[in-house]
Design goal:
351 residues, alpha/beta, Rossmann fold, five-stranded mixed β-sheet, 12 helices, 41% helix
């Protein structure tokens, strides 16, 4: 049965249904409905909710719960995610599965509370110290966010990696009709032989660590992590194409902006201009090969990357196109959101 739910609350319920039993966070707009929802939902399912004294505390609580084998998550918005970066790097270095939600707000600094996509670099290029990646999704609808969140803990457990859902104020605050999946059976969850959960006494010691003093040991750990990232690139890339078969201009957009871009494509088509849309769903791994394939097509003349930033994802689009076709950029910032007509004008300016 479909029901009308606000994005943040739907994401929280999907996390519960997906097996989340521990949540640690700290309030910040525009994601506050997630911890509010979890504050009463976790006790109902026998889980744990803690409003930490800071974002730094929250992410370290996530580290501890993940190390014990719990399905654990946190959520925040841009400045709060910045404070969590050291802990996220530790979690990646310790190979711990968890789920993180970032409902992006405008910046830099405290910025504003309106939607933005200017945390793209922070999210897909690391953000914290050292060489690491996360599996990152950029959903465009509340239903897609629900579906991603429902399976996010499975992906985190499979690869022993943090999974991040990168949304924005529009996705978090909009209300849409969604189908909430049934509760997953915890008996089906994989047994974590590495977890420090008090079992396995007398066996080989279970140690969760991200400190490796010996250079060769640390180098081996980095290669091990990047082997996992290679597996993500082979098996987890997700994207959507819309009217790209005969398109001359390919618009690249993710998240809620992709919905606006799809409307722009329809407006352009109505004017006889052959436009199409490529929408990355996974931001890491990025759909590089899909864009590269489009760039090789003779009918494709150029690309337009559009996002709520001064230009971040556009760099990955340019790397994917690799000089085969022109790549232009159109963005809005400060919490301003473009209209479909704005994207149409940006396409026409390149003609």
């Amino acid at each position: 049965m479909r029901e009308l739910m606000k994005g943040n609350e739907a994401i929280a319920e999907a996390a519960v249904r997906g097996g989340c039993r521990a949540f640690f966070g700290y309030p910040i707009t525009p994601q506050n409905e997630i911890p509010e929802y979890m504050s009463w939902r976790m006790p109902e399912v026998g889980g744990c909710f803690v409003q930490a004294e800071s974002e730094v505390s929250a992410i370290n609580m996530v580290y501890g719960a993940a190390a014990s084998g719990a399905r654990v998550m946190t959520s925040s918005s841009s400045p709060g995610i910045s404070l969590k970066q050291e802990g996220i790097s530790y979690i990646c270095g310790a190979e711990l599965p968890c789920v993180i939600v970032n409902m992006v707000r405008g910046g830099p600094g405290l910025g504003g509370i309106q939607p933005a996509q200017s945390d793209y670099f922070q999210t897909v290029k690391g953000g914290g110290h050292g060489d690491y990646k996360m599996l990152v999704y950029g959903p465009a609808t509340v239903q897609e966010a629900v579906d991603i969140m429902y399976d996010a803990f499975d992906k985190a457990d499979k690869y022993r990696i943090p999974v991040m859902l990168l949304g924005d104020g529009m996705l978090g605050q909009i209300m849409e009709a969604v189908e909430i999946p049934k509760m997953k059976d915890s008996a089906s969850f994989p047994k974590k032989e590495w977890a420090t959960d008090g079992t396995g006494v007398g066996e080989k010691r279970r140690v969760i660590n991200s400190l490796y003093i010996e250079p060769d040991v640390l180098e081996a750990i980095n290669h091990k992590l990047f082997d996992v990232y290679s597996e993500l690139e082979k098996h987890e890339v997700r994207f959507e194409e819309y009217l790209t078969d005969d398109a001359q201009t390919i618009i690249v957009a993710y998240g809620t902006v992709a919905r606006i871009a799809k409307s722009a494509v329809n407006l352009l088509r109505a004017q006889g201009i052959k436009a199409g849309l490529l929408r990355p769903i996974t931001l890491f791994p990025f759909p590089t090969l899909a864009i590269e394939k489009l760039a090789k097509k003779k009918n494709v003349k150029d690309f337009l990357a559009t996002e709520l930033s001064m230009g971040q994802m556009v760099e990955d689009v340019r790397l994917s196109v690799n000089g085969k076709k022109p790549v232009r950029f159109f963005g809005r910032t400060g919490g301003n959101v473009m209209l479909p007509e704005d994207i149409v004008n940006a396409v026409l300016e390149g003609k």
